[in-house]
Known about the structure:
The complex is a heterodimer of chains A (about 270) and B (about 260). By secondary structure, chain A is an alpha+beta fold. Chain A is built from eight helices and ten strands. With about 260 residues, chain B is of the alpha+beta class. The mean pLDDT of chain B is about 90. At the A-B interface, helix 2, helix 3, strand 3, helix 4 and strand 6 of A face helix 2, helix 3, strand 1 and strand 4 of B.
Amino acid sequence: MKKLFKIIRSSLSDFILKLNSRNIIIVVFLIIIVLYLGFSIVAPIKKLNQLNRVGTDCQQEIPEAYTWLNEQPEFFSMNKNKTFLESRLIMSKSDSIGLAVNIPDSIIAIEIKGIILHSARIEKYRVGRFFIGLEGQVYINLFSSPLRIKQYDATIAKEPVIIKKAPKDTIEAAKSLVFPDTLQKEPTYIIFVLNNGFRLFIEQEKAGSFKAAKTRVLFRAGNQLKQACENFLYMLRFQIPPYNPAIRIYVAREDAVAIYRALPESALVTIKI
Amino acid sequence: MSNSVIYINNIWLKLSKIYFDLAAKISGWPLRLGSYVKLHNRVFSFLKNILIIIILFLIVVFTIQWLQEILIPVKHNRPVNYSLAEIEAIVKQKAVVEKSIQKSYKKLAALIPWSPYLVVNTSKNEFYLYKNRKLIRQGKCSTGSYILLENGEQQKWIFKTPRGEFRIQAKTTSPVWKKPDWAFIEEGLPVPSLNHSSRFEYGVLGDYSLGLGQGYLIHGTLYKRLLGLPVTHGCIRLNDEDLRFIYYTLNIGARVYIY
Lengths: 273, 259
């Protein structure tokens, strides 16, 4: 052990003695990486603790003394159902189209004033461990009212506008007739960032083609890089970056398109996990 | 092919010039072979280090989410031996929650109209007609093409079907289409005066039309092979049978939901 310590000490002193610009860059880079890793790993734990500590204030009709009931699985499951229904009722008061995501029942639906316009089956889903770590009462408080879409991004256009210049005469008009290509199926990958930072991914179930697989990889990588850059900026200010837990839902491509195009800019979303 | 080769050669030459200029600046002029090799090695090792840094950074970025996930502490529900008072509380609160669930279900169900209503899916170009809360008919329709017609800088029209909740505001048999300006501009024709006879077209909207307001209609079409495709100027086109059925099912004031 002593020998090993001696070797480490001598190699470290060698390294310090031989400090040149390249080694300095390596050291700085390693420090940055370690800091980045540290901050990023601490972020979800901090958020979870913060929510579990602050968010247990009861907002429901259950007396505060009974909040422990939400740790009882059967009761919690019932209460989650109640929360979801109440959240849908709140959403129904809005005039615009909203999204209801019911993960246990594998149903995603778009609704307006409580009327289900389109319902689709969730083929697969992935819910972050963050949500499993939430205290029962915190979950209830987080999802007791609809969340709002703050930001969105997708691999398809929200409005697939085709620009057409007015033809000069009837001959040009006949030439410029446009008919939609029914065989063209754009890979569909969507992300909704909700007002509390949660990210809801809606993706087509199967990649199917090389183009779709490539789009998926690029879309995911782009999102991760964007997130990493944001986190990096926080790290430079020595702040713990905000953690945005994700829910990933896989549905049929047509359903994903319909959902994305139907939802207005800052639509309401109600979720049951 | 030859153009692209010349283009690549030009880029290569430019890059070589930058490289040699840099080499000359760092090693001092005139550039000797020895110093060039030394510099070449330096640049190569610098680029190698940069590449390693980028790869490391990408590895960190793409594994961080996985790391974050596995390090989140997960709550485990252990079986608890509840006291009698606690069991009583659970039973009592379960009844409260159950009552609340039933109340919410009833409230949500009450929101669904018994009267007939139409739902239009503009992504799939399909319609669904409901009566007494049951789907009674569904089929293909055509909705807005999303074409943005530009006539210079001044005039622009977008042909999209609006989304949201609408009501049937008018019902007409044997409707006549009064062609708006864009219909002439789109066909490359001069725009006639407001009430010119060429503006009025008979039979193109089918036997019936239902008005949704702001000039949007549900009507028939001559182009039945295009049903199921987004080809309209914002209206909803149906085939003759579906149009007739919907016309006689929906009354004025009936709801139409478009998404």
